[in-house]
């Protein structure tokens, strides 16, 4: 089977929401030597400090705690790795009472993360056009 991507360097993932079931499973899959161009370097992030049950050594290379709803905190924590990250996996969510509030907070979180990562020099990001 032909590989679709052939990176000159090891791919580097930022998984936002790594402590959830999907995030943890994704981190473990990317760290596997059988992953496409693997094993990947994985930055796992979440709003809260690393839980005691989290398999740090197996799942991620670095764990980053930050509040994606806060642009200042996002910038502080992600700027140091922004030029290194090649892929972002978004599996985070914050829930509010009203659906409109859910949309607002989750959109703001995604915008904050992408704005910090897009500010890195020599990086290319593709995102859907917004109106």
Tell me what you see in this structure:
The chain is an alpha/beta fold and 131 residues long. The protein has one domain: Rossmann fold. 33% of the residues lie in helices and 15% in strands. The longest helix is centred in the C-terminal third of the chain and has 20 residues, at 99-118. The relative contact order is 0.18. This is NAD-dependent epimerase/dehydratase domain-containing protein.
Topology:
Elements: E1 12-16, H1 21-31, E2 41-46, H2 56-59, E3 62-65, H3 71-78, E4 87-90, H4 99-118
Protein name: NAD-dependent epimerase/dehydratase domain-containing protein
Summarize the structure.
By secondary structure, the protein is of the alpha/beta class.
The averaged pLDDT comes out at: 84
CATH homologous superfamily assignment = NAD(P)-binding Rossmann-like Domain
Q: Which CATH top level class fits?
A: Alpha Beta
Question: What would you call the shape?
Answer: globular
Number of strands: 4
N-to-C series of helices and strands: EHEHEHEH
Major beta sheet, specifics? 4 strands, parallel
Can you count the helices?
A: 4
Q: In the residues, how many domains can be counted?
A: 1
How much of the polypeptide forms β-strand, as a percent range?
Answer: 5-15%
Whole-number radius of gyration?
15 Å
CATH A-level architecture: 3-Layer(aba) Sandwich
Measured distance between first and last alpha carbons: 39 Å
Helicity level, as a percent range? 25-40%
Instruction: Return the structural class.
Output: alpha/beta
Show unreliable segments: 122-131
- For this structure, the CATH topology is Rossmann fold
């Amino acid at each position: 089977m032909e590989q679709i991507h052939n990176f000159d360097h090891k791919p580097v993932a930022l998984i936002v929401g790594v402590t959830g079931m999907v995030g943890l499973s994704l981190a473990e899959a990317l760290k596997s030597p059988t992953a496409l161009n693997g094993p990947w370097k994985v930055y796992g992030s979440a709003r809260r400090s690393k839980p005691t049950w989290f398999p740090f050594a197996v799942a991620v290379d670095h764990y980053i705690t930050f509040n994606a709803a806060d642009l200042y905190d996002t910038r502080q924590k992600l700027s140091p790795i922004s030029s290194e990250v090649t892929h972002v996996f978004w599996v985070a969510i914050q829930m509010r009472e009203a659906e409109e509030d859910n949309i607002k907070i989750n959109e703001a979180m995604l915008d904050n993360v992408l704005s910090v990562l897009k500010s890195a020099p020599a990086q290319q990001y593709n995102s859907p056009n917004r109106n």
